[in-house]
Write a structure and sequence with these properties.
Elements lengths: L3 E4 L8 E4 L36 E7 L9 H14 L5 E5 L8 H13 L6 E6 L10 H15 L4 E6 L8 H13 L3 E7 L3 H14 L4 E5 L8 H14 L2 E2 L25 H5 L4 H17 L3 H10 L8 E2 L4 H7 L9 H10 L2
Parallel strand pairs: 3-4, 3-10, 4-5, 5-6, 6-7, 7-8, 8-9
Antiparallel strand pairs: 1-2
Helix pairs in contact: 2-3, 3-4, 4-5, 8-9, 8-11
Length: 352
């Protein structure tokens, strides 16, 4: 039986209870204290990104649809609806990337921020993406990508800047030093990783410590009720042990967890092919459990799926998007939704 200790990483860092062992498993880590350590999540509290001063919304709005399935007027409407729904104690958090529409998503988001005059209230994340680059996380590419994103977004500082994918062709020392230079220059506040393996994430964190440069404060993994092992088996241990934030993408399993995609049904959506792989016995179990919980609360299964994800150890906020205001409205109740232990267990068991 491990001894439980309150882990912390300096002043202002939200502590979390973790066992005093070198390897922390998924089920041995509670949520950060800012979200109610050791007990049910405190809905309506202020989700703090660990190791930072950023207070973010319970739901992170994915900007991948801006300029893709949502044109600029629709994207503006989505952003208006989302920002209006976020409590005043939180900062609306929006996630984009330079490769989304080859900069179109960033540009639309930047135009909206400028037109609405809301930069001070928002938390903006974007990513240095591969986009066909030979060495996407080399120092010159990172510097050029950051400058493009700043221009597109029409802001002076990126709040959270991700390495979109790992780049094993570039030494970690070069990548992390380049990110640190952006932080020191005031062009980026915090850096983070997306799509890293547990081994490479650990190596990157150790390299930052060795060099004394800015370290990744968060991970963006592929994680949802239909995709659990890749995160829970290894990455969750690193995230919990190192006190990182976690922002899972594809929180609705490419739309499957909305319940629209079922055997024998044809849906006109660019996500249909990706969602189709989840149709089957397990998918039916999960959708049935989601519907049972959703009916009990008078919300959609999509909102329940996102709340379950937000309630998982070390998850700061899930990322999800909608291509219409009506679709987004089905997700927003997750912010106020409180699941019981039995309901979380039902969903966890159904998705096992």
């Amino acid at each position: 039986m491990p001894t439980w200790v309150l882990a912390s990483d300096g002043p202002g860092f939200p502590g979390f209870w973790a066992p005093s062992v070198t390897s922390v498993t998924f089920r041995e880590v509670f949520r950060p204290a800012a979200r109610g350590a050791g007990g049910p999540p405190s809905v309506g509290s202020m989700p703090l990104l660990p190791g930072t001063d950023l207070t973010v919304s319970d739901l992170c709005l994915g900007g991948n649809v801006f300029g893709w399935t949502a044109d600029e007027p629709t994207s503006f409407a989505l952003l208006d609806r989302f920002s209006d729904a976020v409590p005043s104690t939180q900062s609306p958090f929006v996630d984009t990337a330079e490769m989304y529409g080859n900069g179109v998503s960033e540009t639309i988001l930047g135009n909206w921020i400028a037109e609405r005059g809301v930069r001070d209230r928002m938390v903006v994340a974007t990513k240095a993406s591969p986009g066909g680059k030979e060495h996407p996380l080399s120092a010159p590419e990172i510097r050029a990508a950051a400058e493009r994103s700043l221009r597109n977004l029409r802001i002076d500082t990126i709040d959270v800047y991700y390495a979109h994918y790992d780049d094993e062709t570039t030494p970690l020392e070069e990548t992390l030093t380049a990110f640190d230079e952006l932080v020191q220059a005031g062009k980026v506040r915090y850096v983070a990783a997306s799509n890293y393996s547990a081994a490479r994430l650990t190596e990157a964190l150790q390299t930052s410590e060795k060099l004394g440069v800015a370290s990744y404060v968060a991970l963006q993994p592929h994680y949802n009720l239909m995709e659990r092992p890749a995160y829970e088996d290894e990455l969750a241990g690193v995230v919990g042990e190192r006190g990182l934030g976690c922002f899972p993408y594809f929180g609705l399993a490419r739309g499957f967890l909305t319940g629209k995609y079922r055997a024998g049904e044809t849906i006109d959506s660019p996500r249909a092919q990706g969602a189709a792989k989840y149709v089957g016995e397990k998918g039916d179990r999960v959708l049935s459990a989601l519907q049972q919980v959703a009916d009990a609360h008078g919300v959609t299964g999509a909102a329940v799926a996102l709340r379950w994800l937000a309630d998982q150890p070390a998850v700061t906020a899930p990322i999800a998007s909608g291509r219409s205001v009506d679709q987004l409205a089905e997700l927003l109740p997750m912010q106020d939704l409180v699941l019981t232990d039995d309901e979380r267990r039902l969903l966890t068991d159904a998705s096992a």
